[in-house]
Sequence to fold (263 residues):
Amino acid sequence: MTSVNTLGALTHRNILKSLRNPDIVVFATAAPVAFALLFAFVFGSAMEMSGSAYREYLLVGILAQTMLMTSTNTGIGLAMDNKQGMMDRFRSLPVRPVAVVTARANSDLVMNLIVIVLLTLVGLAMGWRIRSGPLEAAAGFGLLLLFAYALSWVSAWIGLKVRSPEVLSNVSMLILLPLAFISTAFVPTEGMPTPMRIAAEWNPVSAVVTGVRELFGNVPDAAPISDILPLQYPVIAGIVWSLLLILIFVPLATRSYVNSHTR
Fold:
């Protein structure tokens, strides 16, 4: 088999495995929907923005938070395959190491697309609207998926380093929750304490969320102009952050796959 055929076969295998476990999609969607309803109709009443404006502001943050959370599926899937001996079977075949990890990241990208479609429908039912044109909207979804793909490679590297999927699940929450909440995903940074505000402004999640809001036309009318470079050019910053993570973690994850059998 050629490298392309091998990658396609492994990706197809992972997609079928995920589709045979619909709980993955259900739970990946249920929690963000609960967050969206809670923030929009409970905490949203305390926001200075009107209800509909905050719902438009909020939903992009929910989409980004969901990409953070679903990225752990890549690492958990690889850790599970390693634990169950599938990695040893792959190593016995003429398969390039990078193909095994790439197939896992690619299949999770497809699952992320499904989750985004479901959350978009929920957002539309809540009153969220895309205020820009179709090209800008497609670019916004593309930026979300690019960021999710980059996060999958980070998760893949961690998943091949840990000894069990349970460890990865616990560690991921300690990392991902601060990334999601210390950002512009749910609230503007102006009211945050100075150290937290600086961290939020330079958080990659903030760049991606702000960039997607611009592409969707969901920027609040009273939003102040930031003097922080990533938030002045958030679309470019979001792309740069994503590509940087891919460039760093593709070789790291591939090397970890090669070395994981020695543990």
User: Anything to note?
Assistant: The chain has a mean pLDDT of 84. The longest helix spans residues 97-126. The radius of gyration is 19 Å. The CA atoms of residues 182 and 240 lie 20 Å apart.
